[in-house]
Amino acid sequence: MLLFYNCCMKKEIAPYVAPPKKKIRLNDYSTTYSGPLDKETGQLELEKLKKSLHTSQEKLYASGTHAVLVIIQAMDAAGKDSAIEHVFSGINPQGCQVHNFKTPTSAEYGHDFLWRHYTALPARGKIGIHNRSHYEYVLVCKVHPEYILNENLPGYTLPDQIDQRFWKNRYESIRNFETHLSANGTAVIKIFLHVSRSEQKQRFLDRINDPEKNWKFAGGDLRERELWDQYQVAYAEAISATTTQTCPWYIVPADKKWYARLIIAKILAETFEKLDLRFPVLGKDEQSALAAYKKELEGENESS
Q1: Which end of the chain is more exposed for a tag (fewer CB within 10 A), N or C?
Q2: Which H/E stretch holds residue 188?
Q3: Any idea what DSSP says for residue 280?
Q4: How many other β-carbons are positioned within 10 Å of the β-carbon of residue 293?
Q5: Contact indicator for 261, 83 with CB cutoff of 8 Å
Q6: How does DSSP assign 14-38, residue by residue?
């Protein structure tokens, strides 16, 4: 499957999965897809994968041995919400929770930066989707280091005090957090929807031009767009520092939404395949009991 992913690279110098312990440059990864697969075929493939994911989710719930945490990060208008909607539309909502993390509340600022994300983790047998995540604390906060001061951390009262050592320690906290989750049965899938600046511009214009999408646009989106280059560096540094063998980052081309959704579904399907989930097999005593229950039900008098 990595060969399928590699077709998205501008230069075939690195795998599609961000390599651990290596610095990446997002410019080395294409934001679009120009291969032989067409949109109609891709959408048909997505529908097939969604059926597979539904079965995998049933096995996940029945086995109760693992949880799946899907983290989706991206620049504004990259398609996070629509990807969640289309990829997970066939999933049983009873076994799946989506958390959209906004600006922390005062209560959340009273805890460490991972606290509110830990409390939103999926239980074994369930899928959790974090639309934005604990990575905001090394992304938007790295572009706006003054936000860190809201955490009221000892020794940090000015933005200038937030140095490279601070970020190195924060990356380490994230790696330890995710390693702990993985060791305890949670498969962590980290997806970066890689959209181009020109495509973001067009999607912003679409939101402005369509009255039904006006609510999706805010003036602040343009202010953040002005910091595009800084965000690209922040993402590259965060991905480089936190991708590991057990919790890798996937850089997904997002200029074509249909293709991004297909790739996400394939990543999920491969993750479930690696988990090798199975429906529980009953022992002899339980099977004998089932046979007795079946006989009892079949012997009922329907007219009584």
Answers
A1: C
A2: strand 186-194
A3: P
A4: 10
A5: yes
A6: S-SBPPTTS---GGGB-SS--SS--
Q: pTM (2 decimals)?
A: 0.91
Structural domains present in the chain: 2-298 (3.40.50.300)
Residues sharing a CB contact under 8 Å with residue 156, sequence separation 6 or more, in sequence order: 148, 149, 162, 166
Quick check: helix, strand or coil at residue 114?
Answer: coil
Q: Are strands 249-253 and 127-131 parallel, antiparallel or unpaired?
A: unpaired
| The two three-digit tokens of residue 123, written as one number | 């239980």
Intervals of the chain under pLDDT 50: 1-15
CA 246 to CA 214: how far, in whole Å?
Answer: 40
Alpha-carbon dihedral angle through residues 53, 42, 246, 135, given to the nearest 10 degrees: -100
Q: Which residues pair with 96 in a beta bridge?
A: 127
The H or E element spanning position 291 is helix 284-298
Q: What is the pLDDT of residue 240?
A: 97
Question: Which pLDDT score, from 0 to 100, does residue 25 have?
Answer: 93
Cα 164-103-29 angle, rounded to 5 deg? 55
